[in-house]
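Much of our argument rests on the idea that a fold can be written as discrete symbols. The amino acid sequence and the backbone structure tokens for this protein are reproduced below:

___
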Amino acid sequence: MIRINLLPYREAQRTQRSQLLALALVGILLLAALFYYGIYSIFSARVSAEQQKVQYLQNVTTQLDQKIASVADLRKKRDQLLAREGIITDLQDQRDMVVRLFNTLARVTPDGVFLTHLKQVGDSITVDGYSQANDQVAAFMRNIEASRIFEKPELNIISKSKLGNEEVGQFTLQMSIRTPTAAHKSGTPAQNKDTRP
């Protein structure tokens, strides 16, 4: 038996083509969405990796800043300790300086010279006194120059004066205290040069 299709043939083909076209369009849209999602995922992963690198570098920078601050703090503390050590060393060196000054001054003062006044300002010492003769003052100055504690004696004033019934010379002498050398600071025993005139 022969079948005859009474439906319009071209209408069916058109409908079939429209369906195929719609399916192709949906497929293309799905492929485009998948492609876009893949590109988005790749770039998101790269951005995330870069952000992690930036975060890591920021953490390292923060740690380095803290270490630099601690190093600077340690240097500051070291400088303070060195300054304190220097002060303590200076005080240790000058602890017995007054006793040494008076001992040396008593030893270098020759017979016939009498000291009446002593004044110290920093490293400079001024003494006033009387002498029976001018050569005794000169001997006093030589003894001062030969000592290890005093240096640079300068005679400021010498004049004639009366002390009781005797005529004496009145003088004012200025000298400096020697700065201690490395040998003195290290504790090397001093020779008897500063104990004898």
Observations:
- The chain has two domains: 10-95, 96-180.
- Confidence is low (pLDDT under 50) at residues 182-197.
- The helical segments are 9-94, 97-108, 134-146, 182-185.
- DSSP finds four helices and four strands in the chain.
